[in-house]
Amino acid sequence: MAGLIKREDIDEVRQRTDIKEVVDGYVTLKGAGLGSYKGLCPFHDERSPSFTVRPQVGRYHCFGCGEDGDVISFVQKLDHTSFHEAVEKLAARIGFELRYEDGGSGPNREDVGRRQRLLDAHKVADEYFRAQLLTPGATEGRNFLHARGFDRAAADQFGVGYAPQGWDSLLKHLRGKGYTDPELKLTGMFSEGGRGIYDRFRGRLIWPIRDIAGETIGFGARKLYEDDQGPKYLNTPETALYKKSQVLYGIDLAKRNIAKDRQLVVVEGYTDVMACHLAGIPTAVATCGTAFGTEHIKIARRLLSDDGSGGEVIFTFDGDAAGQKAALRAFEEDQRFVAQTYVAVEPNGADPCELRQSKGDAAVRDLIGTRRPLFEFAIRAALKRHNLDTVEGRIAALRESAPVVAQIRDAGIRPAYARELSGWLGMPVEEVSRAVGAAAKRAAQPPSGSAGSGHQGQGNSQGRGSGYGAGSAPGVAPLPPSPALPSFNRPDPRDPVAAMERQALEVALQQPGMLEGETWQRFSEARFSTPAYLAIHEAIRASGLALTGDPVRWVEQLLHEVPEPLRPLVSELSVVPLPASTADGVLRYCRDILARLFELQITRVKAEKMGQLQRLDATSAPEEFQRLNRELMQLEMQRRSLRSEG
């Protein structure tokens, strides 16, 4: 068995990997001050971005839920890998060859993590299917694509492939690559019968389903032959890699455009995604055999930076009854978005693929362009269920549609739609407005017996992590003290001394190069009074100057030096944006903060010596009296020197 990865190689991978580039594959980041970036946290659901990344120190920290770490822990948590696997993945990303304690070049095949083995098998299968699409046996598959307006370039762009009609074509191929049957059973690409396993996908057109990072994790297969007794579409079943409630087909291709355009278009099938992208709608994705649900929304919101500053989600559905039902299910999830939600339904029931095939790319763009608010669609759907020619029907329609209007988030739009609804119903505006107002009040009341439960749940969610100093982050409410940290009280951000000490530690962690020379001596001698900050200051003193030239390794060293309960606080202090917009501004700010810390230290020492002087009898101890006076004068000169340096 291969040994552990050498410590220095782990440090090298951590130092050489740009954490922003890695996080960008999962979260849309925006600049948040010099050298800092912010986005919606991938670890909890939030409406305002509180997830901060600081590449200079190689760390991230969420001021909402407390999750923090370096690039290795980020990959571990988001890709559900072990530490070992995360380091190996990042090393491969930067082309760095790892060394192991036993002198080997890495783990043997049997030592590779299960997840990586599954990913590798999917990659091999993906390449195999794509190659098969070019063979004579795949004529039917190529005809299918051609009939729908997709040429070879389109097939290559989306990785479309073909599964041969035999029972074990893929099985033989993967066995030949060294994969064992127990491993292959875990991939979801094979079924099992009395004689063992056999290909799950046979005689079908194949679409690779990839995660947000572009790794193939499953497949979707469309039947081509009449004698195929299986369903029209057959997907990979649930596996360790493939969770259909968390997968959006095309997300790997669309993520950059979703973030750039602040738009997400949700369609119903693989060919619809292809049609939209080729027609100039590169923000299209599709669910895989399930409705668009909560987990999909979390992915979408992170990419959209769904924080109230714009953005739109557009659902496209067939015009049939099933499509109408799907649109209304989407409306049930509408309140989870801050972005505006819309629906685009082609009047004749054509999906984007059919529309492109019959009328061209412009028709697909026009379909998206004619979207209408999802709540309007829901209101009209409610009205269709009632006979509006009768008084009873109109009253029933009002009762069903008023709560829909009440759910409209934009308070400026809500009255306008109440007036629209009154026109559609042929009822007085005042009566409709009263019904909408009553529905809003009912929605605002908590269910009986559950008062306060929602608030408590939110508090529990936000209370994860350190519980330290979140109040210092703009727009983030202070967190309650964590019961898991009995040894340290949470520093009070209103205490000017504690605030000064915190700012000084932020400078020391983020700009350790400022501590060299005489500054290091002054900083080491400074006395911190806040227990949590005192412990971090002691860790800095213990670490010495050896790593101050390397901020990434510097913070990593401090994390090992401080008591474990304080590690989240160290991470937080290392990423909180410094209030400066230029490099020169950062230097001026850091010098000012350190000068204020040293001045505070001088003031404390002066107060102590003044007390000694006042307690001293000058006639009985004249030399001591003179010595204290000289020291007080020196301290005052140091204080004035600091002022002049500032």
Summarize the structure.
It contains 27 helices and 17 strands.
Keywords:
flat; DNA primase DNAg catalytic core, N-terminal domain; Dna Topoisomerase Vi A Subunit, Chain: A, domain 2; DNA Primase, Chain A; alpha+beta; 27 helices; 50% helix; 5-stranded antiparallel beta sheet; 6-stranded mixed beta sheet; 646 residues; 11% strand
Describe the overall structure.
- By secondary structure, the chain is an alpha+beta fold.
- It has five domains: 7-111, DNA Primase, Chain A, CATH 3.90.580.10; 114-242, Alpha-Beta Complex (DNA primase DNAg catalytic core, N-terminal domain); 246-369, Dna Topoisomerase Vi A Subunit, Chain: A, domain 2; 385-444, no CATH class; 496-645.
- It is 50% helix and 11% strand.
- The chain contains 27 helices and 17 strands.
- The strands form four sheets. Strands 12-14-13-15-16-17 form a six-stranded mixed sheet, sandwiched between helices. It has a five-stranded antiparallel sheet with strand order 1-2-3-4-5.
- A hairpin with a 5-residue loop joins strand 1 and strand 2 (37-39).
- Helix 1 (7-16) crosses helix 4 (83-94), helix 13 crosses helix 16 (374-384) and helix 16 (374-384) runs antiparallel to helix 17.
- The longest helix has 33 residues, at 583-615.
Gyration radius, rounded: 31 Å
Q: Please tally the β strands and state the result.
A: 17
Largest sheet: 6 strands, mixed
- Number of separate structural domains: 5
- The proportion of residues forming helix, as a percent range, comes to 40-55%
Poorly predicted segments: 108-112, 448-486
Terminal Cα span: 59 Å
Structural class: alpha+beta
Strand order of the largest sheet: 12-14-13-15-16-17
Strand percent estimate: 5-15%
Q: How many helical stretches?
A: 27
Average pLDDT rating: 83
Shape: flat
